[in-house]
């Protein structure tokens, strides 16, 4: 063997070895984004994906997660609990995700999180507000939003006769129960407490009941596919002066479509976190979304911040293990597009910023004031 050939061979081996190491360092890490990508609540899944993808692009440009590129894996649970469990098992067993941004409906997040917990996968939900999401002792379940017992009805309505309705789901009924508890604590007993059925469109019977009670406020715990038709039928049947309030399940322009027009949502109140689009930390990101033709409404920036938190946890712990990232997040604040966030031992935010919004005649919502 000639010396020249030996040197070339050695050089080739060194290059191949270097490339092998480089390939390993630049390998992909998978993070799931789970929520309703199809079905009546697909608007929220779309918000999740847009926010998470924008965050992944920015994080990857800055070096990724421990030197590895983030690849997002979509999980469509359609807000159906059984489907959520199937999605969770696929993300864990087949896709080998190291973290999850999701789910949306609390009735999905709760069973899916059991799967993640058993697998040691960290999850952050941008939108599930039922207290039980973080009250079960799971070590790696977090929220980027508040809880049902932190929103509910507010003094701005000053209602004396309040009808409380819900959609019989974990999320909607949880909010209705929290609202009912707040009212009773203030000495106001609801004049009506009743459940609707998801997918139902004819609410004539319940509107008749509301009319008979003389309610001056209707609170609905649920999502926009039912809230829209409900408020429209209230208005069409003459209850135009009855104040209508709901929750962060209607924080999408789809509410206007399901109600049949902006004239029906005019004056509707809702509770949601302080608008992250107004924060100085989000200015550049919001401008980038708008330049691309997308308005980062609703949970878009919540999903963005959730992925930022996951990346910060993995990078801070210098580990791609969910348990390590979870421990790091509970001990360290994280700077996100929604400002600095801190979590308690349960995985809840240490500060909740729910405020009141009102929809206008143009079908847009605007922040009113801080909740008392």
UniProtKB/TrEMBL annotation:
Start and end residues of each Leucine-binding protein domain: 29-364
Keyword Signal annotated: yes
Pfam family, one: Peripla_BP_6
Signal peptide: 1-27
The entry's keywords: Amino-acid transport, Signal, Transport
The UniProt record lists the keyword Transport: yes
SUPFAM superfamilies cross-referenced by the UniProt entry: Periplasmic binding protein-like I
BP-aspect Gene Ontology terms: amino acid transport
InterPro entries per record: Leu-bd, Leu_Ile_Val-bd, Peripla_BP_I
Record family assignment: Belongs to the leucine-binding protein family.
PANTHER family xrefs: AMINO ACID BINDING PROTEIN, LEU/ILE/VAL-BINDING ABC TRANSPORTER SUBUNIT
Official protein name in the record: Branched chain amino acid ABC transporter substrate-binding protein
Organism of origin: Pseudomonas putida (Arthrobacter siderocapsulatus)
């Amino acid at each position: 063997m000639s010396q020249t050939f030996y040197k070339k061979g050695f050089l080739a081996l060194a290059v191949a070895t270097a490339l092998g190491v480089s390939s390993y360092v630049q390998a992909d890490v998978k993070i799931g984004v789970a929520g309703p990508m199809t079905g009546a609540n697909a608007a929220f899944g779309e918000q999740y994906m847009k926010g998470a993808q924008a965050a992944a692009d920015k994080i990857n440009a800055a070096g990724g997660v421990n030197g590895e590129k983030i690849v997002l894996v979509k999980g469509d649970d359609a807000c159906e609990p059984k489907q959520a469990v199937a999605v969770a098992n696929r993300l864990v067993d087949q896709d080998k995700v190291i973290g999850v941004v999701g789910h949306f409906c609390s009735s999905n997040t709760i069973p899916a999180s059991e799967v993640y917990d058993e697998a040691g996968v960290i999850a952050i939900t941008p939108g599930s507000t039922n207290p039980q999401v973080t009250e079960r002792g799971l070590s790696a379940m977090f929220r980027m939003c508040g809880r049902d017992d932190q929103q509910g009805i507010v003094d701005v309505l000053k209602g004396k006769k309040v009808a409380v309705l819900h959609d019989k789901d974990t999320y909607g009924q949880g909010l209705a129960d929290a609202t009912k508890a707040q009212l009773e604590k203030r000495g106001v007993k609801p004049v009506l407490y009743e459940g609707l059925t998801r997918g139902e469109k004819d609410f004539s019977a319940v509107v008749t009941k509301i009319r008979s009670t003389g309610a001056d406020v209707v609170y609905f715990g649920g999502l926009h596919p039912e809230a829209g038709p409900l408020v429209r039928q209230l208005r069409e049947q003459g209850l135009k002066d009855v104040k209508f309030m709901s929750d962060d399940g209607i924080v999408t322009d789809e509410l206007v479509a399901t109600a049949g027009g902006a004239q029906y949502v005019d004056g509707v109140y809702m509770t949601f976190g302080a608008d992250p689009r107004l924060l100085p930390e989000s200015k550049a990101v919001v401008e980038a979304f708008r330049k691309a033709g997308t308005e980062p409404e609703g949970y878009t920036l919540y999903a963005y911040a959730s992925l930022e938190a996951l990346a910060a946890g993995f990078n801070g712990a210098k580990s791609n293990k969910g348990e390590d990232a979870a421990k790091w997040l509970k001990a360290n604040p994280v700077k996100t597009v929604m400002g600095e966030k801190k979590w308690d031992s349960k995985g809840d935010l240490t500060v909740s910023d729910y405020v009141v919004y009102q929809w206008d005649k143009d079908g847009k919502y605007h922040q009113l004031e801080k909740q008392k």
